[in-house]
Design brief:
It is built from 15 helices and 19 strands. The protein is α/β, with parallel strands linked by helices.
Length: about 500
Amino acid sequence: MRLIREQDFVTSIADALQYISYYHAPDFLQALNQAYEREQSPAARDALAQILINSYLCAEGQRPLCQDTGIVTAFVQIGMQARWDSDISLQDMLDQGVRQAYKDIDNPLRASIVSDPAGARTNTRDNTPAILHVEMVPGDKVDVRIAAKGGGSENKARLAMLEPADDLVQWIIDTVPGMGAGWCPPGVLGIGIGGTAEKAMMLAKESLMAPIDIQSLQARGPSTRTEALRLEIFDRVNALGIGAQGLGGLTTVLDVKLLDYPTHATSLPVALIPNCAATRHVHFSLDGGGPAQLPVPKLEDWPKVARDSGTPMRRVNLDNLSRSDISTWQPGEKLLLSGRLLTGRDAAHRRLQDMALHGEPLPVDFSNRFIYYVGPVDPVKDEVMGPAGPTTATRMDRYTNFMLENTGLLGMIGKAERGDATVAAIRRHQSVYLIAIGGAAYLVSHAIKAARVVAFPDLGMEAIYEFIVEDMPVTVAVDSRGHSIHKSGPAEWKKIIQTFR
């Protein structure tokens, strides 16, 4: 009979969350590199290169792969014969570990959890509480699978209560394009089939904890209906041509995971949950012998890649831009930005709009400026700013016309596509929308040479900062004529992929 000590569990949780904040799993890293090597779309290949470079920098510097360090979910299997040396609940132990990890002085992780979700939405400041799933199993050990999942991918989760005669694969193929690029492809699709609505969702989430093995499955061929479904969905999703960051390309998913469960004769629940390019999860066991010991990867095992220097990049001085300057930028063009850059997310935009509606002067002059949609991680040691990757721009669509009409804003930087009304507003105001690469947060932070809060300091990571950047890499996603690469890129590559078949 094993005795599992409270402190061993708490320490293991904290260590695991720190570990996955800066280390990609080897199987995921290998799959990313394989996608990079076979990618033929220049824009998608550059995005994959930035993600791989970011991965190496994070492993080396032990800093987060993404500024969104996620909501913690733990699947804990407890052996029926295991005993606990603790006076608190399993949830409390899990939350202690989360709190310890997210407040680590050497690598603080961004706290994103808010309480009163339908009301005040107050940040809990330590990323607790975590989501806990418990299963009692035979044995005397404790097995833990833990993940930290960003909001960009979690928000794209989908559930359908299909009828038994419906084509579930077709539902998935029809659903994935509507998820947009906010989940930061390429990643892994988790699918849950059967049970009830909540069971299907849990199966989809749990499936994402498994290692990538689609290549070995392709090599040997399917031996079960589930494996055949995985291969079919994998091929058909990649044939959509969505590509890395939604820019159009050969690889949209690195693997498809699937778990099923018996269901009611009249039901066919199907859940779909994507993992992003900063996929973070790890598995460990406790047997009473102390905290879990996680394997330390070797830096020499990281792929050796460099951003494609064969494609010239236009260098842009943000401090000396006009609408006539940005009118020459082309969809899909890569830029290197230098100069002063403002930031702002949902809360800042909402406050700016409220101030304008009440006739109050805005605290920042946005004339001929660019705003970067980001909620950065706090800096440590000699850093100017911690990981500072883009957040999903679609959430700012509701504020974009207001900003363009009332502030003199020149352009925006985020990730993922913009809605049709926003693209129309960009065209009408002869503005532009640029994307930074989701999954390259630490790489972006290296371009930030100075940072200061210029408005709304009470909003924490959602305050408005002014960054001074040097050679910050971005891609033109919507030009001043309203041409969106997120529409043209996937459409073009879907046709190209069809010619391969």
